[in-house]
Specification:
Length: 193
């Protein structure tokens, strides 16, 4: 067996396990979006109910984002994720929501996470998913969150948090290094001279 095939087998097994989990999980439709409940640590479907409320909020307040969500995302899955509020899985077209975050955060925040991850899906579909400039992709996703949150009453703190996320991202890269801040300083110095 060649190395390429050996590398692919674990991915195929993971994809098969994910497919099986979704096939047997409890699902519901929310205005054309399939919500999958794979939450294991929350009783009685509470996390899925929180995610459904977030989806309803998007449906009610931003029809354009909702249409893109229906088109670009195969499933919204409530499950345990590792260290993130949400993720977009390109290979399956899923938006994952961390069940612990869904249980402890406001519905508006969860809706912003869905909008962020759905923006990743949209950008991927448009051909920008493999763009080497991750900074621009993350900026576009956070700006989509902010645009959505502006449509909701009482979200000033959430908007401020999203803006702070943008600032942190521009100052450091995903590994916590200061390279982007240094590049910005160099670009600023070139413009000034």
């Amino acid at each position: 067996m060649t190395d390429v095939y050996a590398m692919c087998i674990p991915e195929i097994v993971k994809a098969g396990a994910r497919w099986l989990a979704v096939r047997i999980a409890e699902k519901r439709q929310v205005h054309g979006v399939t919500l999958v409940d794979l939450a294991r640590e929350t009783p009685d479907g509470q996390a899925a109910e929180g995610a459904a409320k977030a989806l309803e909020l998007i449906h009610q307040h931003d029809p354009a984002v909702w249409r893109r969500l229906v088109r670009d995302v195969r499933y919204v899955v409530v499950t345990k994720t590792f260290g993130t509020a949400g993720e977009y899985w390109v290979d399956s077209g899923w938006v994952l929501l961390n069940e612990a975050v869904v249980m402890r955060q406001m519905t508006e925040f969860i809706a912003m996470v869905v909008v962020h991850e759905a923006t990743h899906a949209r950008l991927w579909r448009m051909g920008f998913g493999r763009c080497p400039d991750r900074e621009r992709i993350e900026t576009a996703c956070v700006e989509a969150e902010i645009r959505f949150a502006r449509r909701l009453p009482g979200t000033a703190n959430l908007i401020a948090g999203a803006r702070a996320k943008l600032t942190r991202y521009w100052e450091t890269d995903l590994r916590g290094n200061a390279r982007k801040a240094e590049r910005r300083e160099r670009k600023g110095a070139k413009k000034r001279s």
